[in-house]
């Protein structure tokens, strides 16, 4: 399943990944920009945790619920709710329906490909393509749109 998502993401030319026309590449750039609080062009582990857990956790229980995540992600990046739903479940490594520090730490080795403790745009871009279905439904549950 995971391999299929990866292959679909790699071999698909993405045209208009969400209703506002952002491609996955553009969303990756937006997310990185939002997370990069010290403006060095990279995301540290702390910035990743700060962004997701502190900013997105509306009720301050250190867990980002499915509802909180989808609400925030769709509002911020204008993504399709179905796509966002698949994205959330791919991020939720322990399948407890919450994104926590545990889920983030589980993804860090995969995101930070050269293991320098910082995530660059190209690293984040590759990661997003593997966990986030594009707007044509490849790898996700979004209705395919004809080419
Ligand atoms: Ca940074
Ligand atoms: Ca989880
Ligand atoms: Ca890195």
TrEMBL record:
Chain coiled-coil ranges: none
Taxonomic superkingdom: Eukaryota
Claim: Nuclease is one of the keywords in the record: no
Alphabetical keyword list: Calcium, Signal
Signal sequence, renumbered to the chain: 1-16
GO terms assigned for molecular function: calcium ion binding
Residues annotated as domain EF-hand: 23-58
Protein's name according to its UniProt entry: EF-hand domain-containing protein
Species this chain originates from: Potamilus streckersoni
